[in-house]
User: Fold Site-specific DNA-methyltransferase from Phocaeicola dorei.
Amino acid sequence: MSSKDISPRLFLDDEFEETKIVPDKVVCLGMEFPSEDARREYFRAELRKKLPELKQIEGFPIGEDDDIINLSDPPYYTACPNPWLNDFIEEWEKEKVELEKEGKRKANFEVKTPYAADVSEGKNNPIYMAHAYHTKVPHPAIMRYILHYTQPGDIVFDGFCGTGMTGVAAQLCGSENDVKALLKKGEKAEIGVRHSICSDLSPIASLIAATYNLKFDPKAFERKALRILEQVEKELGWMYETEVDGKKAKINYTIWSDVFVCPSCGNEIVLWDEAVDLDKEIMKDSFPCPHCGNTCSKKNMEKAWETSFDSLLNKTVTLNKKVPVRVNYTLSGKRGEKNIDAKDKNLIENTNLYKLNLNLYTNKLPFGEKTKAIKSSNHIEYLHHFFHLRNFILNNRVSDLSGKDIYLQSWLTSIIQNSSSMYKFRLDRKGGILNGTFFIPSLNIEQNPIKLLKSKITDFNRCFYETRGNSAISVNSATSLYNLPNSSVDYIFIDPPFGANIMYSELNSIWEGWLKVTTNNKEEAIINKEQKKSLFDYQSLMYKSFKEFYRVLKPGKWITIEFSNTSASVWNSIQNALQSVGFVVVNVAAIDKKQGSFNAVTTTTAVKQDLVITCYKPSDAIIEKFEKSEDKAKTAMDFIEELLVHLPVHLSKGESTTAVIERSPKILFDRLISYYVQKGYAIPMDAQEFQKQLKERFIERDGMFFTASQAIEYEQKKEKCSGFVPMALFISSEAEGIEWLKRELQNSQTYSDLQPEWMKNMLPPKKGDVLPELMSILEENFIKDEEGNWRNPDPEKAADLEIIRNRRMMKEFNMYLEQAQKPKAKRMKDTRLEVLRYGFKECYKQKNYQAIVTVGDHILESLLQEDEVLLQYYDIASSRV
Assistant:
């Protein structure tokens, strides 16, 4: 086979041999090596020495030592916990000093407000073409955050890095063209590379991250890849040949069909033969059995099964029966199709015989929900059962020829899904994989891996960018970042697991099987029945992860969490875990993926869309002030002042100013209480006293509180807008009802005035919560004059009302407690959320943790899990009982 047959860009062997390439000397972590190969082998030997110690760390992957070392490119990338991260941090910190001397960094750099501008995702970037993965945050979107929160030389960390887009974004901040392409008119940014540490529990994720982030020589990669293709073409190309009019043609793909059994006569039916009409380009829902004429459909037929000896496993296996039915080929540069013929069937049989002379590798799939499903539906338990035989043979050969080269290994895994039986046939020939599951369609396509690999060379080469090589990659559990020192990173961006959305370790097994290094899923933060991981287990793992993130982030610095939320309980688990470790939640935004913009979330309940949570780690000054102060109540307003400084001052929606809900007294009080509870401090004041102090120390504008300088800035920016959009308030809970009435009663109104509007704004409460009647809320919280008009209470009377209301709520809470303590007590279906919140708070003050746990165990689980206040008190009480 000639070079022309493979690619017009092939570097001919004889031309290459004549070119004397003298490798450049390289310096790595202060040591000089004659070449990259010498550096790599030295650090691989060092890694081998460190493996016994590294194996004690949570999340160490499953695999033989040799396979882990062969998959690594140390010290930049290790397929296990990276022991050199601290060395990189020391080197990068020294670099910061030099950048400051050169005027490229500021010693007193500080970011006071979160990033709140619109973001365009830029999904059509060529970087996404190289390797598929379950989730991928577009790096241009991440770049905007990094440019806002960091300066050149800063260290960015991603503990759930997936394919390493955070690392790509950090490094492309040093590309003037890429940065300028992001900036809008009037925007400025400090151009300069940011260093990154990308860590993930998954070996395949870390390999892809290394592929995207480490130094990369496209010409050398292409040369090696084409040599491999030439070799496998010589050895195995015959497996992908067919005969058309007496001439040899190259197979592009083969269509395979499941075989079913007629429920009437018991004879076999090839689905393709009876259900597919190529002339009309339709798939029939029902059709007559070719043997008995009975009307059949895929739904009312059982699969046909066949038992055969599996030489790889040295035992018999029973799999659903499939037969090849049609071939798509290329002959003389033109594509065509034909039905399968006897010679094609003989070719497949010869492949079966050829297999007997090979030493092929396979492995068993991990146990879990998705693997259990494919075992049940298709009897698949091993890696090779996902592939038609010739594709499995060829992929094995490419794996052997790729050796220790991480780019070649990533090149192979990039085509694994599309070369498997999971690739679906469609009449329009636009097939694909069903994401997030193991699904083998009844009509599937066996693609030619040589063609797939050839096309991927271009995709990989398009991933080159000049600022590569400023990242370190590690396979780590986010729950144990032993290799990162305290307060060592400048910014964190993460896109964490989404509860039960994606079973990463299971789905990754189809890639990781080829690497021979697989995920240790003990610390995988997911909800999975088969792994016996519940919502509380997920929350515990996320808590441990966020605790580590809090530890490694420098004080006063920021963390951004993108979260694809699908349930209120998972959402609250994330928020609760964040606040429990000490982060202060500043802003929650929702991403509109169609428009690529971020819009402020105006409720504290979950929304079913992607969310971006912005938090900061309190500064050393405020932490020290809390630790030294004996009267924690006096430091409360200092905490609020630092929080206000970190909140957005002004947000606009169209031509109007929109309210910043995080500046409302309710949310500010929630943040204060969360921080005090997390630190184990006594709750310093009630809501009335808090609002009184807020008004004494800060300035109120449009129901929001500002520092003096912020109030001036807010007024100036508001003047430039034509309108004002207040905080949207709908009534689905008692607390929301009170806030709604406070706004409505800025001017006094009668009950009959309020009642119709109250009904219009009502939404169904959370399951298990009871919304009191309008009159009850009015009587407990507001003042009625002699004319029957209701109004907001003045501060003096508000305190008295609060005392009366609290007594009523505590009385009702004690009734809940009494009910929960009865023998064989069942869960209470109707409880008032505000009563539960108040009761939990009072029990916490009195250190009556058992009462919190008892009541918490007897209210609806959804109510407990979906309310962050209840959940926080319950978790702390559970740990102290």
Observations:
- Residues 1-20, 592-609 have pLDDT under 50 and may be disordered.
- Residues 107-216+470-591 form a domain with the Rossmann fold fold (CATH 3.40.50.150).
- Residues 795-820 form the longest helix (26 residues).
- The chain is about 40% helix and 15% strand.
